[in-house]
Structure formats: C-alpha cells, structure tokens
C-alpha cells in the first residue's frame, strides 16, 4: 500500500538539521504541515491547518509528530474522522499540562486527550527529555493504546539532539509499518 508520511512539527518548527526536516527531504512521499505562527501556537489554528493538510492528501497517511504536535494529533484524532490515518509515530510528546515541563505558550493545548487512538501508534521518548518525564510519556502511550519506546538519554529528540537522519527512529517507523500490516489482516 502507498502511504504519505506527514511530518507534523511542534513549537518553533523543525528547521534545517532537525531529524523531521531531514526525513522530509529523505522520504519522497513526505509532506509537512505548515503553521502560520510557529512560536505562539493556538490550538484552534493549528488544528485547522493539520485538518486541511490531511484532507489535501489522497493516500493513506502515516503521521510523524514531534513535541507539541503530539498533543495536536491527539486533539485532532478525537474530533475528526481518522480513517485516512494508517498510523502515527508520536515522538517526544510535550507535557502541556505541566508548568514545570513546558512553556506557557503551549498550555492552550491542555488538557491532553486520553482517548484510545483508532489507528496503530508508537510513542517515543527519551529518559532525560526536559519537556516530559518518561513515566508521563509511558502513561500517555498506555492511554492511547500505543507501543512505547524509551530511547535513553537523548534530550528532547530535537535539533539539539543532533540525530541526523535518525536511523533509530526509522527502525521504529518500520515497526509501525509492521503494526499497520498486522492491523489490516
């Protein structure tokens, strides 16, 4: 089956050198959600742009969300028909319900929806992510019905983590593709 990979960046965008930007250029079937305001995110506006991008894609979609975008995808999935979504890789969720973990401009994305997702998904966190505790990330994975990976002490899995093409993430993406295949049978 043909899939489009939908890159969904979080606060501040995933710019040059970020693994999400590298994946955007590495995978020929990748597209990216573009937000109007990367630094003062408003949930309603971001949901609208995500929805419009999903509707513009004709194939089944694998979402690859990072940080704040993980909460965005959870909100979107609760409010919309997710039948076009084959699966989701939910990387380094930001705990928008925690004032100690996230900046104030992200708090309008709280509360994080805890409904089970209607498609296969994997949550990936690192053991020293400043934006969420590993325990909280695992809790979210359990609620969403996602597989959970803790990839060790690698920070927020962002530009500062210097992951390049993030081969480990690509291997986990292959696991997601296997889940999708098993889910269809």
TrEMBL record:
Does the keyword ATP-binding belong to this entry? no
List, in alphabetical order, the Gene Ontology terms for molecular function in this entry. hydrolase activity
Keywords on record: Hydrolase
InterPro entries to which the protein is assigned, alphabetical? AB_hydrolase_fold, RBBP9/YdeN
Is Nucleotide-binding set as a keyword in this record?
Answer: no
Q: What is the protein named? A: Alpha/beta hydrolase
- The species this protein belongs to is Flavobacterium commune
């Amino acid at each position: 089956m043909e899939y489009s990979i939908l890159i969904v960046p979080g606060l501040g965008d995933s710019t040059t050198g970020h693994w999400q930007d590298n994946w955007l250029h590495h995978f020929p079937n990748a597209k990216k959600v573009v937000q109007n305001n990367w630094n003062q995110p408003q949930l309603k506006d971001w949901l609208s742009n995500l929805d419009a991008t999903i509707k513009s894609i004709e194939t089944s979609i694998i979402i690859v969300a990072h940080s704040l975008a993980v909460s965005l995808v959870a909100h979107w999935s609760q409010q919309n028909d997710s039948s076009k979504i084959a699966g989701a890789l939910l990387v380094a969720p930001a705990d928008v319900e925690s004032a100690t973990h996230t900046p104030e401009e992200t708090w309008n994305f709280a509360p994080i929806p805890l409904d089970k997702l209607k498609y296969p998904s994997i949550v990936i966190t690192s053991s020293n992510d400043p934006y969420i505790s590993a325990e909280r990330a695992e809790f979210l994975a359990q609620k969403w019905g996602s597989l959970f990976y803790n990839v060790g002490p690698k920070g927020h899995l962002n530009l500062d983590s210097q992951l390049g093409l993030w081969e480990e993430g690509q291997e986990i993406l292959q696991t997601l593709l296997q889940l999708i295949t098993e889910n269809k049978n």
